[in-house]
Design goal:
With 326 residues, the protein is of the alpha/beta class. Helices cover 42% and strands 13% of the residues. The chain has nine helices and seven strands, in the order E-E-H-E-H-H-H-H-E-H-H-E-H-H-E-E. The longest helix has 39 residues. The radius of gyration is 22 Å and the shape is globular.
Length: 326
């Protein structure tokens, strides 16, 4: 009797952050991660079919949230609740002070999931509003630079590092910790192993978990990182002839990426060989078959631990980062 060989469970991918506002370049995700799950996805075109695991929270009033906390827990959260209730802040330090020493060190072990989701949703909305404001400032900066360049041609020769982009602001490690803790707590019922977070960089902004990995590396923790340049492959529009070659390559990509994630989580000695398989697939088959140039690229980065995760449970496993070209 032939031995029965059980194939390993496929990896599942969940988008970070919890609340994602649709952007045009997310269309490519349906080629590389067709089963990607979102917490809450807003404004997505109906045919995209990405599953949303959450509905907007029913509790929108901050005034009703405090009754769900025990007295000791409430003292840990009060600064954060006060900050949210203000709906605005005069200084970036207000947010950091509201989080540092109060919210970041601990999430209460027993707290209603609906309350957590309501808090997380309000934090995400606040950060989205801030990002929108920075986007407007960046647009105004570009207009001003064009106006000035007509009179001051030497402006074009300035080192770009002297003109930092305004889109995201400075890295914010404290709020990145809070967002990831919320993400893990709210999505916990859905995170069936093996799973990995796929961080959408354009949505994560200045409080991306990327800064947590970088901070861990700066503290001497040995981590593994790899980057892949992939074609911005858009699935065939609905109603057209299916792209059979594209479908086959999509399946093959997920297979070799899953092997790499499994090696990183279970057998680091095989990681480099698996990484080479992903690189060869991209160079030898994905790019030639796509017919696209390097200007039409997306970037995928992968972070993981070489010596096992440290005590920081919010970075317990491999994590992927996705961003469009440019």
């Amino acid at each position: 009797m032939a031995a029965i060989v059980f194939a390993p469970a496929p990896w599942r991918f969940f988008a970070f952050p919890l609340v994602v506002h649709w952007q045009a370049h997310y269309t490519t995700l349906s080629f590389y991660f067709p089963d990607l799950s979102f917490g809450l996805l807003t404004d997505a075109p109906a045919p995209k079919g990405f599953p949303a695991l959450l509905q907007p929270p029913r509790q929108a009033s901050l005034a009703t949230l405090g009754k769900h906390f025990q007295p000791g827990e409430l003292s840990q959260w009060q600064a954060y609740l006060d900050f949210l209730a203000a709906q605005e802040y005069r200084d970036e330090s207000d947010l950091k002070e509201a989080i540092r020493g109060h919210l970041a060190p601990v999430l209460p072990e027993e707290i209603d999931l609906e309350v957590l989701w309501s808090l997380a949703h309000q934090l995400e909305q606040m950060l989205a509003d801030k990002a929108a404001g920075l986007q407007r400032l960046a647009g105004q900066q570009q207009v001003l630079e064009r106006i000035l360049s007509e009179d001051f041609e030497e402006e074009e020769a300035l080192d770009p590092s002297l003109q930092p982009p305004l889109v995201y602001g400075l890295p914010d490690v404290e709020s990145a910790q809070v967002r990831l803790r919320f993400w893990r707590a709210v999505l916990a019922p859905h995170l069936t192993p093996p799973w990995a977070a796929l961080v959408l960089e354009a949505a994560a902004g200045e409080s991306s978990p990327r800064y947590l990995w970088q901070a861990a590396a700066a503290e001497g923790t040995r981590l593994w990182q790899a980057g892949f340049v992939l074609p911005d492959w858009r699935p065939a529009p609905a109603g057209t002839t299916p792209d059979i070659q594209g479908l086959e390559l999509s399946v093959e990509f997920r297979k070799v990426l899953g092997e790499l994630l499994t090696a990183l989580a279970e057998n680091p000695a095989q990681v480099e060989a698996c990484r080479e398989k992903v690189l060869r697939l991209a160079a030898d088959r994905l790019w030639p078959a796509s017919g696209l140039g390097q200007a039409q690229a997306v970037y995928l980065e992968l972070y993981g631990w070489l010596d096992g995760p440290p005590e920081q449970k919010f970075l317990s496993g491999p994590m992927l980062f996705w961003s469009p070209a440019g």
